[in-house]
Amino acid sequence: MAIEIAKGTARQLVREQTHALIQVRSPEVAGATKALEAAVTEIAQLEADPRDGPDPDAEDATGPKCMSNVIPSPSGPMLWLDLGEDLGAMAVRRIPKLIAKALRKAGVSEATVACPQRGGPLDELISWRPEDYPFGSGMVAWAPPGTAVPDSWVDAAMDWLSDLGADDGLWANVAMVQFRLDADAGRRLLRAVIDSRSDGCLLVAGDLRRRVRTVHACAIFDSKLTLAERGPEFGSQDRVDTAEELAGIGRGLAGDVEYAAVDLDVGYDFNGDYQCGKLRSRLFQHWGTEVVDGVFWWQVLGEGHLARMRDTTGCVALTAPGRYEMRCGQAAEWLPDLPSRSQLQQACADKLAHCLDDAVRNPEGGLMLPPLPGEDG
What we know:
The chain is an alpha+beta fold. The chain is built from 12 helices and 15 strands. A hairpin with a 5-residue loop joins strand 14 and strand 15.
């Protein structure tokens, strides 16, 4: 077998345009990855093809609008592209050939360039509608942007999955391409995707018809880890017990995070918009050890948070230097649809008022907070 381009690959790229995904399938993974990284440079310099005709609205910029880093996967490295609107079909069709050329130059002897099939059994889990797949309890942890994600995160993630049958196999989702893996391969994939800073990696253990445990990690801009448990047979007491277990895991990771939080109504990913009952214009993201992005039952805070807080009662020092845990009430009081949840959200917001970002502080239909120093009111 030589270097091949799968039938329909160029046509698929043209069709997907703003959310295109291309892959190199090869047993020579290291060489294929190196070749795809080299091809990225060529693709970035791709110019409009005269055969596509003049476009008076096109800008002078060359190449795709945006590209990911090379994304590791069990079946071969992948690349996500937003090809924008300025590159015509003929220019886009050159991309698979540029990758094939890079593979030959790198000495790869066997590979297929193709657009991978996306989707699979995890689709209902990934949906953000809890009516499609019930929410559960989850924990998010943040590390400083640009720093290496510690091994303790990967260890905690795999331990979390192992308690619900990871040894029987895992499902993985990377760039919406899904794979069935054993636990060792899942660990390697999680580490590789984190280190590549290319995309998020979702690992799932358990039975989708009953309950699952999930791990989601992403290190593109911030380093973020989410552990969660949910499913049709995941009841209210399960939410409470799992939240307590996750708080214990958070304490163990406190020395390797800048911030962590546990809530009792999350999906596979810890979405601050949903938890805070708001739809905001930007993604839930970490703001260091002074600002938090929401109000939750249990949180790990830093010295900077405490320095900004008007009331630090209830903040307990952890063994990790400069880290504190803060509980707002009991986990059972944060169950969805209980009046106590919104009441405790408000109480937590009052304590963290000077740490909350402007989006959470927006009083329009949301939390009413005291003014920050220097604000009117």
